[in-house]
Specification:
The chain has about 450 residues and is of the alpha/beta class. It folds into two domains: about 110 residues; about 230 residues. It contains five helices and 33 strands. The strands form four sheets. Strands 1, 3, 6, 9, 12, 15, 16, 19, 20, 24, 28 and 31 form a twelve-stranded parallel beta sheet that branches. A nine-stranded parallel beta sheet has the order 2-4-7-10-13-17-21-25-29, with no helix packed on it. It starts with 16 loop residues before the first helix and ends with a strand.
């Protein structure tokens, strides 16, 4: 905005008599000069030059009068010029004030127009948001209503409607996944083939959006399938975050092969078969109280978090080539069939206290980088620790070997503790160096440390 010059004082009008006074003073000055010069001419001049001097004196007096008048005229002209310049400055100041006022009015008008535009845009946005929310609510309510229909085909349509709604609206995905999980947790008749197909479709909808190799991936969603009834649940290659299958009953083969797990993975459920080959991630994996009637496989799995398999029951278990970075616990776990840990690596402590191996227990070329506990463990027909590496302390105290045992080629960083362990007298045994073996009776041998 332009700067406005400071205001000047009020302009006073010059009185008319001031001009008369000036003229009178000019005439008086001229008369005094003329009188003085004429007196000087009369006293100093010769008679023959007196006339000339008097004429010069008169001329000089008139000149003084004329000069004084001219000075007064010059003063009047200067005052007139000053008044004109002041009037010009006043006009310019008034024009600047007027321009500033117009600019303020224009800025205010523009601000009012902009505020009105923003208000209209907010109103339009709010109306559009409300309309979108109403539409979403209607679509969501309609899709959920379809899931409660008695007709299986209609329920399938509801599943696909929810899937499409989640695909188009990322903010609704968590809610939609929660609805699908809740549907799978609901009781279902055992002999209804159509309902079984609806549930398998719901499972496929969930797992389809948990694979990170496609445009349909829904990142960050959590599966809460506690107590659900699942059939052939296939999450192979999926990314699972805090997935919970605790208490679920899983028919068919449940596959998490190649899955990536984060947070916590709870598998304390009943499985026909559980395949977790090549499982990856830093999640805590919990199989406490799990029951696998068929095959459970974690071959080549790499688990960064804690592994807990307490009180689990496995028929045929395989952990071949698995790598466990965190502590692992198989306390009180029952292996009713074969169990293979061949070439597995336990980088932290592992505990199999009170575990039971009914059949074959294979730990060939297994690496125990830290503490390994087998206290009160019951081994079955064959137990193999061939070329196993024990890099930390190992304790077989009060373990019971009911079949052949071999530690052939095994290496120990520390002496193995076997105090009060027992082994069947039948069969071939190869014990760690320094183990004392004494007959307990006809059927059992007692193992003690030196």
């Amino acid at each position: 905005m332009r700067s406005i010059p400071p205001r000047e004082g009020p302009l006073r009008v010059m009185p008319w008599w001031l001009v008369l006074v000036g003229l009178f003073l000019a005439a008086l000055l001229g008369w005094l000069v003329l009188d003085w010069l004429l007196g000087e001419a009369d006293r100093a001049a010769q008679p023959d030059t007196r006339a000339t001097l008097r004429i010069d004196a008169i001329r000089t007096g008139l000149t003084v009068v004329a000069g004084t008048g001219g000075g007064l005229a010059l003063l009047l002209a200067a005052r007139r010029q000053w008044i004109g310049e002041r009037a010009q400055r006043h006009q310019e100041a008034v024009a600047a004030q007027d321009q500033a006022h117009r600019e303020r009015v224009q800025a205010h008008a523009e601000a009012v127009a902009e505020a009105g535009q923003r208000h209209q845009e907010r109103q339009a946005g709010a109306a559009e948001h409300d309309a979108a929310e109403r539409r979403l609510t209607e679509l969501y309510t309609g899709a959920v209503g379809l899931l409660g229909n008695d007709n299986a085909a209609v329920r399938l349509g509801g599943l696909h409607a929810l899937e499409r709604l989640g695909q188009d609206n990322p903010a609704q995905r968590e809610t939609i996944v929660a609805v699908l999980c809740a549907y799978l947790r609901m009781p279902a008749p055992d002999d209804d083939a159509r309902e079984a197909e609806v549930r398998r479709t719901a499972q496929r909808v969930l797992t389809r959006h948990l694979r990170a190799d496609g445009d349909a991936f829904w990142p960050g969603v959590r599966l809460d399938l506690t107590g659900a009834r699942l059939d052939g649940f296939d999450a192979a290659g999926c990314t699972l975050v805090d997935a919970d299958l605790g208490g679920a009953v899983c028919a068919g083969t449940t596959s998490l092969a190649g899955a990536t797990v984060r947070g916590r993975l709870t598998l304390g459920a009943t499985f026909a078969d559980l395949i977790c080959d090549d499982l990856r991630g830093d999640a805590e994996v919990v199989l406490d109280d799990a029951r696998v009637d068929g095959r459970v496989s974690f071959d080549r799995a790499e688990i960064g978090g804690v592994l807990s398999c307490r009180r689990a029951t496995f028929a045929r278990a395989s952990w071949r080539g698995a790598t466990l970075h965190g502590t692992a616990s198989f306390d009180a776990t029952c292996f009713t069939g074969s169990a293979s840990f061949r070439e597995a690596t336990f980088l932290s402590g592992v505990s199999l206290d009170y575990a039971t191996f009914t059949g074959y227990a294979g730990f060939r070329q297994t690496r125990f980088a830290d503490l390994a506990l087998f206290r009160w463990t019951r081994f079955g027909d064959q137990t193999w620790f061939e070329r196993t590496r024990f890099e930390g302390a190992v304790n077989f105290g009060r373990a019971r070997f009911q079949g052949s045992v071999t530690f052939d080629g095994a290496t120990f960083a520390r002496r193995a503790l076997v105090d009060q362990a027992r082994a069947t007298a039948a069969g071939r045994h190869v014990w760690p160096e320094g183990t004392q073996v004494a007959p307990l009776d006809d059927d059992w041998l007692l193992l003690t440390d030196d």
